Fold this sequence. Notes:
Layout: H1 15-25, H2 30-39, H3 44-52, H4 71-83, H5 93-104, H6 107-119, E1 124-128, E2 144-148, E3 151-162, E4 169-175, E5 189-195, H7 196-199, E6 204-208, E7 217-228, E8 232-233, H8 239-275, E9 277-278, E10 281-282, H9 287-315, H10 321-346, H11 357-365, H12 374-385
Parallel strand pairs: 1-4
Antiparallel strand pairs: 2-3, 3-7, 4-5, 5-8, 6-7, 9-10
Helix pairs in contact: 1-4, 4-8, 5-8, 8-9, 8-10, 9-10, 10-11, 10-12
Amino acid sequence: MAGPFRGGSDAADHADIRAAVRDLCRRFPPEYFRRLDETHAYPEAFVDALTKAGWLAALIPEEYGGAGMTLTEASVILEEINRSGANSGVCHGQMYNMGTLVRHGSEEQKRAYLPKIASGELRLQSMGVTEPTAGTDTTAIKTTAIRKDDCYVIRGQKVWISRVQHSDLMILLARTTPRADVAKKSDGLSLLLVDLRTAIGHGMTIRPIPNMVHHETHELFFDDLEIPAGNLIGQEGKGFRYILDGLNAERALIAAECIGDGDWFIDAVTKYASSRVVFGRPIGQNQGVQFPIAKAYVNVRAADLMRYRACALFDAHAPCGAEANMALLLASTASWEAANACLQFHGGFGFAAEYDVERKFRETRLYQVAPISTNLILSYVAEHVLGLPRSF
């Protein structure tokens, strides 16, 4: 391994986690993921193996059957999955969704759902927030949840909601008080736990959205879907605050995935550039090849440090919005930089499916756009960190 920080700036502290995750991932070679990519199939066997090993229950407290890990440790799990050549996007929802339920769910909800999620009896892989007309302007969502006796009646639409067909439960954000009737636009939003097994076809319909990445995502339609009032998470009207807490975890975890991607690309291109001989010399001997790879490596390591900072703050229950956003920006940009160098220096072979570069290239490109655009992260930093005037 090249460099003292290769494999994570905190690698020594989590060597046991890294080794165990790598060992599991070796059971699913690149050919497995190529076949899935060709057929747009969900990696059921891979996700089941992660579940049985307890990795997807990392953030569930031990008293509910989980591993009781920190966000820092959970981030190492996802980093190693991506470093192995796999894609954590097929299952990472269960990680950051856990934080929302664990931190803000009632004791009754936690005892009812968390042990079953930890064992694999239930999957909580989806969160319904984004809408076609609102996008990242979450407070402008139009999906409503109207209280009627002992249930909430849901009407509205969501878009870009992932893994719905492979999840039993979904956390849904809806407006319980009209925006015109609240003092702050972020008030009046509530979180509800949706049982997808009974909802789909009974007030909820789904439509798959084909896309360039092997990332199963859907558009959802709600037409008088009834959800028991007991499925409200936390207090009515406080859902936006709960969502922000969960999104900070999401950003830090996806930053870790991007670091794993970045290291995968750097490993691949370093190996290829050292062995590929053109004009009588390895192409990696040329500084025009060396410098972009080295620069990408430096940026991945810098992003790695911010990832650990964001996770440490989250684990300490300290404000971490700025750090989580910056970690995602730095890591997604670094992984994309590494992806471009890897594809470029593989030449035509980079476009061949058998090298896996083009698949990983598509997967890591997503994180320049989702879960939040890099430009919106810069807007956040400008306003909330630097104190510049609000731009929108």
